[in-house]
Amino acid sequence: MHEELRLDNQLCFRLYTASRLITQAYTPLLNRLGITYPQYLVLMVLWEQDCLPVNDIAHRLLLETSTVTPLLKRIEKLGLVERQKGIEDGRRTLVSLTEKGKALEQQAFECIPQGMGKRMEPCRLSLDDYARLRNDLDNIIDKLK
Predict the structure, then answer these.
(1) How many CB atoms lie within 10 A of CB 40?
(2) pTM for this prediction
(3) Can you give the CATH number for the domain in which 99 is found?
């Protein structure tokens, strides 16, 4: 067997596994809010800046518009966002938070940071460790996109 092809030697496998496990750790917290992890990502984008075109949301999440659109439709059914055709350009769809979507930000703030902090305690990473890891991952993402 080629050493380069061993699963234990793959960075991609570690990134995939860590991502999957962290997403699983979010699940019980997000279930309390009635949303999924991908929906949470979209909402975080809109909590940062409301009323965005679908393309901008997709760009911010490094996803294709065709991936984000069905996600937005499901979030709209939950009553958290509204989608409207642009006034100046009818081809653009703007997405805005509803009052319910805006209120969900406070609920998320009250349970997710603290809940995830508790879930990550066994990792024993310092704030500096987290900052270094975030910067390293940002570097990888920037180079690959």
Answers:
(1) 19
(2) 0.90
(3) 1.10.10.10
